[in-house]
Amino acid sequence: MEKQPPVNRRLRNIERLEALSMLAFYPLEHLYYFGSHSVYPIAPSRLAAIARWSCRAWALYVVVHFLHIQEDLKSLKHDANRSFTLQKVEEKEGRLAKVDMTAFAKKRRAISLDLASNLAYFPQTVHWLVFCDKDAPQANSNDHLQVTGTRVLQE
Hints:
By secondary structure, the chain is mainly alpha-helical. The protein is built from three helices and two strands.
């Protein structure tokens, strides 16, 4: 399934859960978009359910991605400790060894930027997850509802 196998079993399961959440999110999001723009005829109540499940799938991804970042940091620390230990052993044996700190710094920066990006998504994700149910249209044959985003407007 993966191009490069993950470092450990937990990371593999996290990555698979992220992939499954995106497999749910994208089709639902596209279906919602086409339904809200009348490309596909979808009832407003069904459209609201699609929006709710799309929000839930995205929220699952964002939360699980925090676990992924945590595993990446653990892996980076483990690799750095192992490299420093190998450097000390080689220095004791009289060989000149130098740990490439720039590689670790680049990986650490990439993880930090990934964390910042995920932290930026988190409040918006919580907002849409909480208000998705509140804004869901109620099925009523007398009302003509237009659903935009997850907000419902009376025409």
